[in-house]
Amino acid sequence: MQYRQDILDKDYRIADTPIYDLKEHYDFIIIGGGSAGSVMANRLSEIYDWDILLLEAGPDEFSEISDLPIMFPSLQLSPLDWKFKTEPSDYYCLAMKNYQCNWPRAKVLGGCSVLNAMLYIRGNRKDYDNWESYGNPGWSYKDVLPYFKKSENMRIPEYQNDYYHGRDGFLSVENFRYHSPISQWFLKAGEQMGFEVRDVNGAYQTGFTLSHGTLRDGLRCSAAKAYLRPINERENLDVSLFTIAEQILIDKGSYQAYGVDIMKHGIKKTIYANREIILSAGAIQSPQLLMLSGVGPKDHLYDLDIDLVYDSPGVGQNLQDHVAMGGGTYLFDAPEEYDDMGIGFKLNKIFTTENVDEFTQNARGPVYWLPEVEVMAFVNSYYQNRSEDWPDVQLFFASYAENTDGGVFSKRVAGLTDDFYTAVYENILYKDAYNIIPLLMRPKSRGYIKLQDDKFKTPPLIYPNYFSDPYDLAVLVEGAKIGYALSQTPIMKQYNSRFNTLKIPGCSNYEFLSDDYWGCQARHYTLTIYHPELVKWGLITISTRLWTLDYEFVVYTILG
Ligand SMILES: Cc1cc2nc3c(=O)[nH]c(=O)nc-3n(C[C@H](O)[C@H](O)[C@H](O)COP(=O)(O)OP(=O)(O)OC[C@H]3O[C@@H](n4cnc5c(N)ncnc54)[C@H](O)[C@@H]3O)c2cc1C
PANTHER family this protein is in (predicted)? Predict the structure, then answer.
């Protein structure tokens, strides 16, 4: 890394405020220095008169790895991951060890933006408009678009002057610097199926695109890099790393949150807020901390001997996720001009001294590659009104598959069992292959989160209840079939594209590639696309009673 001082970024790193330098009072205390917390710290500290404290349980990011797009999956299950797992199920995650899916969540300044796939994707126009129609002024598409533009530093030349994009924001957006030629096949295949190749963050969402990334000069642009490093000299902002907020202190009479008990390097301290406490500890730990602080379903808190502050049955409920189906592996014959290393991702082809030199000395090459999602598409399943631009399925196209990495990334992060991997991939190890992964845009199934005990360090119990609404499985199957149809387009057939015929163990009694087979595959190779959320927008204006949030995301009192 001595050649890449830009990655070390020494002058702009965030200094950790030692515990003995923390003040007793701040105007605002932000719990969780992830994507949301980093933005809040930046925006609030624009007001010089306000003192801000940002609390983050993890360290600063280890940029040597996290900055490199090719290393995307490697930080999962590392010390920067809380390493959550779903509770065992007999209906989904069946190909995973102990029937539990991994649910990575980052423990680092910048939060999940430090270990995410860097894909820059906005929500659909109609979703925002629906939120507003449920009684949440300020959340329509026309209202949120200016904020997307304000936050964005669009660096893709053709979009820089586009109405839908901004150039002056903190978060830079670029194309990935390296692509496999297969990415062009995917785009062509989309066109051959009648889709447009377009900016899916622009006027219309339905269509195909090369993935846009939250990248700066080809490297990851985490929320910490985007929003915190540029303001590292603001004197009214303290950032306390390695700091766990263990409890939010709430006055039982006024329901006003007034302080936070923290633990840093084994030392406890209470810090008080003059104005607001902002809870941005992510989708899992925000409800966990609320319940530990006495706000949650009263029976559950009673069972765990947690002192009830406010009976709020909605806390931990309404859990939903963009669930996906893994295992959409298609083999193909690489054109003759490519040697036996093929043209997609192969583990032994990437980590070579040549590629490392190319990266360190010329800032080029496969280190700048995100093979997992080279291209993405938003499409309508059979269940969705196709005249509307409101797709219900997203497809990820990877110039890589579980067999091409020898299981080093994919098997490990998904938690696939050895038996599953052996049955489905061992006979095709390192053969040219690509993946198509369908995921749901608007799942109907709802899960929940519960505490195991009254301690923050004990992971909460996560029940995603994937496919508890059968509609979700039906839509996902349709998404897989659209992916399959794409594999049969003339451009893909030109390379003898064919589905991996090694059957999923547990699904062999179903006719191969029938709807039942696809459904069985989804229930075995169930994948989180890492987007859990719990906010119930329909109730948001009264949700200060349920959730401590209102539509302005003010979190400082329970009753609004
Ligand atoms: C593997 C992966 C891939 C993803 N890919 C994409 C993608 O390509 N594109 C995309 O848009 N989204 C992606 N996401 C989702 C996206 O990154 C998250 O939705 C987003 O980062 C969540 O932001 P947040 O601020 O709500 O939570 P987080 O970013 O999770 O931040 C919460 C922070 O709070 C800290 N914290 C928790 N509890 C406490 C406590 N008690 N005290 C102090 N600190 C605490 C945590 O350590 C963490 O840093 C991905 C997520 C993952 C995990």
Answer: GLUCOSE-METHANOL-CHOLINE GMC OXIDOREDUCTASE, GLUCOSE-METHANOL-CHOLINE OXIDOREDUCTASE N-TERMINAL DOMAIN-CONTAINING PROTEIN
* 255 plus 383 within the same structural domain: no
Tell me: do 304 and 438 sit in the same domain: no
Averaged pLDDT for residues 193-220: 97
492 confidence band (pLDDT: 50, 70, 90): very high
**399: domain CATH number?**
3.30.560.10
* pLDDT over 50 (residue 559): no
pLDDT above 50 for 455: yes
Q: What is the DSSP string of 156-182?
A: -GGGTT-TT--SSSSEEEEE-SB--TH
Kindly state the average pLDDT of the residues 25-46: 97
The closest residue, in CA terms, to atom 35 on ligand 1 is 32
Assess whether the C-beta atom of 77 lies below 6 angstroms from ligand 1: no
Least confident of 267-276, 354-363, 419-428: 354-363
| Beta strands 171-175; 152-154: pairing state | parallel
For atom 46 of ligand 1, the residue with the nearest CA is 107
- Residue 171 CA, ligand 1 centroid: distance in Å: 16
Structural domains in the chain (count):
2
Is ligand 1 within 6 A of the CB of residue 57? yes
With a 6 Å cutoff on the Cβ, whether 37 touches ligand 1 is yes
If you take atom 23 of ligand 1, which residue's CA is the nearest one? 35
Ligand 1 contacts CB of residue 394 (under 6 A)? no
Ligand 1 contact, 531 CB (< 6 A): yes
pLDDT digits (tens, 9 = 90+) for 124-176: 999 999 999 988 899 999 999 999 999 999 999 999 999 999 999 999 999 99
Per-residue pLDDT at 1: 60
- Nearest ligand 1 atom, CA 121: 11
Q: Which atom of ligand 1 is nearest to the CA of 32?
A: 34
Asked if residue 83 is part of any domain, the answer here is no
Same domain (yes/no): 191, 47: no
Residues 6+ apart with CB under 8 A from 170: 42, 151, 153, 226, 227, 230
Protein residue closest via CA to atom 12 of ligand 1: 116
Identify the residue whose tokens are 């990248």. Answer: 215
pLDDT at 552 over 60: no
Index of the ligand 1 atom closest to the CA of residue 34: 31
Q: Residue 215: name the closest of 44, 362, 66 by CA.
A: 66
Asked if residue 416 lies in contact with residue 95, where contact means CB atoms within 8 angstroms, the answer is: yes
